[in-house]
Task: structure prediction
Amino acid sequence: MAIGVAMLGFGASGTALALLGAEARARAGRRFPLVAALAAAALVASPALAHLVPLDPTQLAWDGRQWARLGLVYLCFALPFALAALGILLALMLEPERPGLVYGASFVGGGMGASAALAALWLLPPGRALAIPALLGALGAVAAAPDAWAAVALGIVGLALARPPWRLTVTPYKGLPQVEAYPDARRVGERSSPVGWVVAVGAPAFRYAPGLSLDYRGAFPQQTALFVDGELAGAAPDPARGGLEMLEWLPTALPYALGDRERVLVLGAGGGLEVASAVAHRAHRVTAVELSPELVRLARELSPGVLGDARVVWIAGDARGFVARTHDTFDLITLAPGAAFGTAAGMHALSEDFLHTVEAYEAYLGRLSPRGVLAVTRWLVVPPRASVRAVLSAAAALRRVRPEAVRDGLVVARSWGTVTVLAKPAGFHVAEVRALRAWASIRGVDLDWYPGLARPEPGFHRLDDSALSRATAAALAGPEAAARFAAAFPFAVAPATDARPYPHHFVRLGSLAGWLRESRGTWLPFAEWGPIALVATLVQSGLLAGLLLLAPIAARRGAGLHSARVVAYFGAIGFAYLAAELATIQQLGLLLGHPVYAVAVALAAFLACSGAGSMWSDRLTAARGWTVGAGLAGLLAAAAVGLLPLVHVLEAAPLIWRGAAAVLAIGPLAFGMGAMFPVGLRTLAADDAGRIAWAWAANGVASVVAAPLAALVALEAGSPALLVLGGLGYGAAATLAHVPTRAS
Result:
């Protein structure tokens, strides 16, 4: 959505210049200083105005007012991009002989800005970091045209830095505002970094014990709630204010019934509840991996007695990367359910999560000792979805590691709120199954599947649907049976893969219309607002693109539409650029360990290398420009096949080498992509200002629609499909550039 809004502003600037007419464009030199200053001021005004709009995206399905508010938010955020792009466009008018230099300079600056944004989030809290882009814009205005307008813009930005005119608020659907509403709740810690904004809240009424047995009658330890970006990330226990015997009654303690687990690996350790459980179960060594370093520090400060135990080794980093790099083996690898059930109104459907893909489970199984067990716990929702996918994914991973283990290597346990899947490549022995059944019986936990189970047994917690038992039976019957079961299931529950890492996405887009036709009460509990918001973004952005970019130019006689090739060429490269960029960002998320780092590195590399390619394009003859597009089509086709395997090979490398590899992989692609726009200007628009404005607008239209459309393609078909589409776009542009030009 953010990229689409940015490109909406860029495209609208082309429309504005086309509507100003030739006489106004002739005064580009006088307009440039004012536009540069306004762009910097708009970076202050835009977020302040957007935060005044009472938008609730969860009501888009039935409240028409929310669509209007979403459009207003679009316009607010698009404004600074429109003004900045208009400044670039005016600079192109002032330097018609060197479009590559001007366009390339804007790209290089964008790459530097992506790096500056990452640095700002290390140094400043999010509210103040929001003023840094405005500061850079104001300094740019002063450097380009040091006049009164630039001085005013710099003054406005200075005031925003001292006292930001916006207040960042957390949606009420997240856990932080809900827990802060508890009696006597108060914040006891707060940290921020590019990885996330971490807040600790102490509240006497707060309890976090996923799936705790209803038969538990013991003491409950005092806990401090920990949140990352407003989402509940776990709880730090304080054993001095309550015992830890509760941990023995959590479903995640099930694997300890198999006997001592000497070496335990906790992935996504969060607030440390599973770390405390491993310590309480007498593990000799506990390795806890958590992505957010600030969360690790805060949790250890709040619970030093347990989380600071000498047996615990904390790793602040990416779990997949750690598993790829370590040579250690573990008796237990455990993944807790993660964020609280039902948070963020279903927006997790759009979250890329490489911890719960088949390749991830396969990697975890490969790091188990001969008696080791993988334990994956997911929240239970009705009808079951995430838990069914966990069963199918664990079975698929077991089949890859040791095919014969599928028959006797799975156990599925269910409480009132969670489902725990145990996977053991060596298989569960009869004595181990007996121990698991005894543990579950005492604690009122249902075993939906275990080796030797003939048919589902009556349990403590009744479900209307025996989906878990049926899913396990299908998985054991073979991959074809598992695929048939997943295809027939009402929700999308097929295992997620690294090429399509959306394990929290369950609603098929093709069924959305059917859900919306149902009465609100029947489909609302199952809705995933992420895909709905994405479809809304596509519709909204398409309508706004047509309104702001196409309609005014089409209505104005002589607006510059001399050839349909201009529209087709610049539209094709606009879509192809966004598709390739988003697909690469997704796959680099696995390589670099976090989407924030992937976005920063990918944007910086894409923009800087595209800028270099744009500058180089001034040396390229227009007649040879089509070869660049043809080469890009081939490179993107190769990336669709080879980029993800390359990422898997490099996962175990140190971060600095992975970052360098990412830049080297992006560089040749981005270099050629940056050349396509200025070459197209010289080939199809020459020095015709009207055609330049139209080309800019057409490129913006395609980019606006491409951002949400590319996200939908990635959600449904995966990132390799996006790379293929990007290659087709550049191939089409190369064909259009190679066709001989007719006199218009």
Notes: The first strand starts at residue 186 and ends at 193.
